[in-house]
Structures are given as structure tokens and as C-alpha cells.
Amino acid sequence: QATDSFPPLRNEAAVHVLRGRMKGIQGHCNSCYMDAALFSLFSCTSVLDSMLFKPFPLCDRNVQSILRDEIVNPLRKTGFVRARSVMHLREQLTEKGQCSSFTNAEKDPEEFLNLIMHQILGIEPLLKLQSGGRKEQDCYCYQIFMDKQEDLVVPDVQQLVEHSFLSSNLKLVEIPSCFIIQMPRFGKEYKMFSKIIPSLELDITDLLLDSPRECCLCGDVATLECS
């Protein structure tokens, strides 16, 4: 455990602390979905650090302290989290979520995020989406759904998000404080792409609802959008 708080790892420090053998979050008993999610959310960014400290309305302080002291702080301090710490969190999620399979089965990352953010910590949804002018939908992460694109062999995240939003006729109602995206590359049986290139920056200009944009022909403010 590490009860002192450590900032997220950046630049050379991230490389120094996280690279090498016995680094990252130790896997055990189908924990990969949770290991990958926790690493992505906390190792090198502080955007969700409120989950570790803020007393939300429904906040379970025991789960919050396990997440902070047994997982996030050791990861940022030494670059390693033992499987026992993640199992401790999984046991608490099983108890709070009335789902016995959290300790032994592979789950969808979205199910884990919804449970810990909504039911256990009581965080407000991070995303507001609208589909085809219908009612707004609130959610905590966005899972990319798309048909197989023959021209996308090794896509980057920017391409996948744009294709997915276009095919689902989706728009972001507002700029999200945090945009958690689940790639179409998970599960044991099927992976749509052999590799996905991380986009270090994500341009959401064309994904925003009613956002003023430039006409690609005349340069004035656009009045029509062609998919």
C-alpha cells in the first residue's frame, strides 16, 4: 500500500517507472478487462483523480481507499500493482454489485466502469450523446461499434471514433470533461483489428452537436453538413 498521494507519471518519468519486467498491473483470474481500464484511467492522467478523493453522494469510502492506496498510488510510485490488490477491489465490487462473477470471470469494461462510477461512487455521467435528433443519452464511456472497413487495416483512434459516430448518427451534446473510449479490440474470440494506433490528440470538432464549423468550399461558417 501507498497512503501518500502521487501525481500521474509524465514523459521521461513514465518511461522510467513503467517500462520493463514486473511493471504495470499483475493479471490474475481474468482480470485483464479491469487491469487495462485502471491503467488507462490513472497511470498517466489526473483527469479522474476526483474518484480517489472526492466524497460523492453515494461514495463508498472503503472502495475509494482501496482504489487509491492499493492500486493507483503504488502504480504511480513504483510502476507495479500486485494481483492481490486488484482482487481486493474485485471482492468489494462483487459485494456491492450483487454479481458473484466479478472475482473470476472476464467482464465488459463498460460494466465495470458503470458499477464503480455510478453505483459505488455516484459520479455524474461523463458523456452526453444524441442520436439522430432524439433524446440525450448519458453514459460514462463510449464503446466503438462499426462494420468492418476494408480500407482500415491499421487504423488510429481518430479514424475509429469518426467512423463509429458517423455510422451510428451520433453527436456529442457538449465537450466532455473526460472521453473514455473502448476500442473494438477485446474478448478472447474475435478482434476486428490486429493493431490500433493511439491518437495522442483527438479532434472532436466534427463530432460536436451544433458546433460552428468552416465550410470546406468557401471558408465561411458552414450551414450544411454532408456525411
Automatic annotation (TrEMBL):
Location of this chain's protein in the cell: Cytoplasm, Cytoskeleton, Spindle
Domain Peptidase C19 ubiquitin carboxyl-terminal hydrolase: 24-204
SUPFAM superfamilies, sorted: Cysteine proteinases (SSF54001)
Record PROSITE patterns: USP_1 (PS00972)
Keyword Hydrolase: yes
GO CC annotations, alphabetized: microtubule; spindle
Entry-linked Gene3D superfamilies: Cysteine proteinases (3.90.70.10)
GO terms, molecular function: cysteine-type deubiquitinase activity
InterPro entries linked: Papain-like_cys_pep_sf, Peptidase_C19_UCH, USP_CS
The keyword Hydrolase is assigned to this record: yes
Pfam families with a match to the protein in the record: UCH
GO terms, biological process: protein deubiquitination
Keywords: Cytoplasm, Hydrolase, Microtubule
Protein name: CYLD hydrolase
Organism: Ibidorhyncha struthersii
Lineage of source species: Eukaryota, Metazoa, Chordata, Craniata, Vertebrata
